[in-house]
Specification:
single chain; alpha+beta; four-stranded antiparallel beta sheet; 4 strands
Length: about 100
């Protein structure tokens, strides 16, 4: 499995725009059969910071996600709301068997 972790700092005053874009991306991503999890979070003490956690069956599934129409829409919707973004891809080695 492939995990994708994205850390985002919103442009001050654009947090609501970013949330709308995140929700739009979440709907499309969760409908993908090879996307196993797609969650976003907002930092508790710094509401301008956000995190996305995505889980895919493999690298090909993530590539398909990035080629999707809703991902292109996410990029367009979020571009003016993102000050900084750092993303990483991780191989899942310590899988939680409870899910």
């Amino acid at each position: 499995m492939l995990a994708v972790v994205v850390m985002i700092d919103a442009v001050p005053g654009k947090e609501d725009d970013l949330i709308s874009a995140l929700e739009h991306n979440a709907v499309g991503s969760r409908a993908e059969p090879t996307c196993l999890k797609w969650e976003w979070s907002r930092h508790i003490s710094d509401p301008g910071k956000f995190a996305i956690y995505e889980l895919y069956t493999d690298e090909a599934a993530f590539a398909a996600h990035k080629a999707s129409e809703h991902f292109a829409e996410w990029k367009k919707m979020s571009e003016d709301a993102i000050a900084t973004k750092v993303a990483g891809q991780y191989e899942v080695l310590g899988e939680d068997s409870r899910s």
